[in-house]
Amino acid sequence: QQQQQQQQQQQQQQQQQQQQKRQLACRLAGSLAARRTLAPRRPELQLCGLPSELLQDCIDLLPTFADRCRVRAVCRAARLSDWRLAPPLRPEEELSGIALGDLGAKAVAKALAPGRGSALRELCLGSNGIADTGAKELAKALGSGSTLRRLSLRHNDIGDEGAKALAVALASNSELEELDMWGNKLTDMGKTALLAAARCKVFLELDDPLYGQTNLSAGQAVVTGMMRAVLFDWLSEVHNSGSAPAALNGESDPQEMLFRTFSHVDAYLSKQAVHRSELQLTGVACTLAAAIVQGKEDAEDSAELASWLAFVTDGACTEQEVRNRARDVHKALGFRLHQPTAYTFLRRYLRKTGWTEESFSLANYLIELSAIDPDFRAYRPQTIAAAAAVLSRQYLSQGISVQHVPGWKARLLRCARVDLKSELAPCAAAMARMHALEHGHRSKFVNVKYEWARLHMVAKIAPNSPPDAESFVTYLSEDRAA
C-alpha cells in the first residue's frame, strides 16, 4: 500500500510539472502573439530564474519551430536552449533553409511517426545541412508507415550511406510518390541504389538554365531555335494522338510524359551534336526513353511503342533506329534522365496556391508554350512554373475561375524559392507577352490543342495587356490575400 501511495504521489507530481510546463508554454506563445499583433504590452515573462532543463522542456512544448526560434530571439535566458530537440507539434509543409541539420531532421522524423496525428502529405526539407545521420532518421519514418506523398531533400549533404538507408525504406513504402535528391553528395552508387529500390519518382539531377546550348555543327547541320520549336510542337501532336499504343496513351499523366520528353531532348542536344536530318529521330527516341519508367523496361510495350514511333515519322526512320537512338539517349544522359520539369513544379505550386480546372488548363497552356519557345531556356523550370501559376489567376474577367487561398503570394514565393526581381517578375512579363503574341495562331498544334473543350478552350480567351516586370514585382509584393 505504501508503494502504491508513493507511485500515485509521483504520478501526481509529474502531472503537475507537465501542467506547469504547458501553462508556461501557453504564456510564451501568448506573449509572442501579443508582440506580433502589437497588442498592449503585458508584464514580461520572468524566465531567467527557471532551471535550464525546465526552460528547454517549455520550449519543446511550443507547437512550431518558428515559435521556438522567436522565444530564443526575445529571451536572453532561452538562447542557450535548442529549438530542434523535440518534434514540432504542428509540422509544416515548408521547412527549407532554416538550418535544421541532423538534429532537426531527427525531430521532424519523430513528428512523422504513425500515431502522432500528422496529416502532412508534402514536406520540403531542402537546404538544411542534413547529412547521412539525418537521412537515416527520416528513412526510419518512411519505413514505418509514414503517409507522406512528396518529400524534398534537395541541396543537403546526404551521401551514399544516407541514400542506402532511404533506399531500404523506399523498397517497402508505397505511399511516397516523389523524392527530390538533387544537390546532395551522392555518387553513382548511391543514386543507383535509390533508383533500384524506389517505387516512386526519384529526381536526382536538375540542370541549370542554358546548361548547354544546342550543339552546333558546321554548315547545314546547324540546329536552330526555330527547328527545335517545330520539333517540340510536332512531339506534342504525337503525344496527343488517339492511335498511340498503351505505353504512351496509357500513361497516368500524359502531360508529365510530354515534359519528360522535352527535357530529354534539350539535355541530349546539349551533350551531343545532332544533324538536323536526325532531329525527328532524336525526338521520338526521347519519347521512347521517357516511357521507360525508372529504367525498368517492359520489352513488349517498348517494342510496340518503338514500332509506332517509327511509323509516325512517315518513313524517316526505322524501328531499329528509334531503339538504337533511345539507347544512345540513356547512355549519354545517365542520371540526368531523372529530373523534375516545369510541369512537376507547376503541380506542386498549384497545390499550395489553389487551382480550378480552368486555371490548371491555362497554366498548362502557358508552360507548354514556354517549353516550345527557345527563349525560355534562360529560366529555371521552377521560375517558369511559378510565373504560370501567377498568370493563371489573372483571367477572372475572361471566365477563368480561381480558388481563394489567403496569402497565396507569400506561399508561392516561399515554396518556389525564386528571386522576385531578377527571376520571377521578368519571366512572368515575358510569358504574358508570349501569350499575347500566340493568341489566334492556329498554325501551331499547341494552340489547337488548348482550344479543345476538355481543356476548357483556354487558347481562345483574349490575353490581357502584358504588364512589365516592375508591375509584377509590385503585385506580388502586396501584403494582402488575393
DSSP, total strands: 4
What is the overall silhouette? globular
- SSE order: HHHHEHEHEHEHHHHHHHHHHHHH
Mean pLDDT: 87
Distance linking N and C termini: 66 Å
Structural class: mainly alpha
Biggest sheet strand order reads 1-2-3-4
Summarize the structure.
The protein is mostly helical. 54% of the residues lie in helices and 2% in strands. Strand 1 (122-124), helix 5 and strand 2 (150-152) form a beta-alpha-beta unit.
Structure description:
The protein contains 20 helices and four strands. The chain is mostly helical. It has a four-stranded parallel β-sheet, with no helix packed on it. Strand 2, helix 6 (160-171) and strand 3 (178-180) form a beta-alpha-beta unit. The longest helix is centred in the N-terminal third of the chain and has 35 residues, at 2-36. It starts with a helix and ends in a 5-residue tail after the last helix.
Task: Please outline the helices and strands.
Layout: H1 2-36, H2 52-60, H3 65-74, H4 101-111, E1 122-124, H5 132-142, E2 150-152, H6 160-171, E3 178-180, H7 188-197, E4 201-203, H8 225-239, H9 246-249, H10 254-271, H11 279-291, H12 299-312, H13 319-333, H14 342-353, H15 357-372, H16 381-391, H17 408-416, H18 420-438, H19 445-449, H20 469-477
Parallel strand pairs: 1-2, 2-3, 3-4
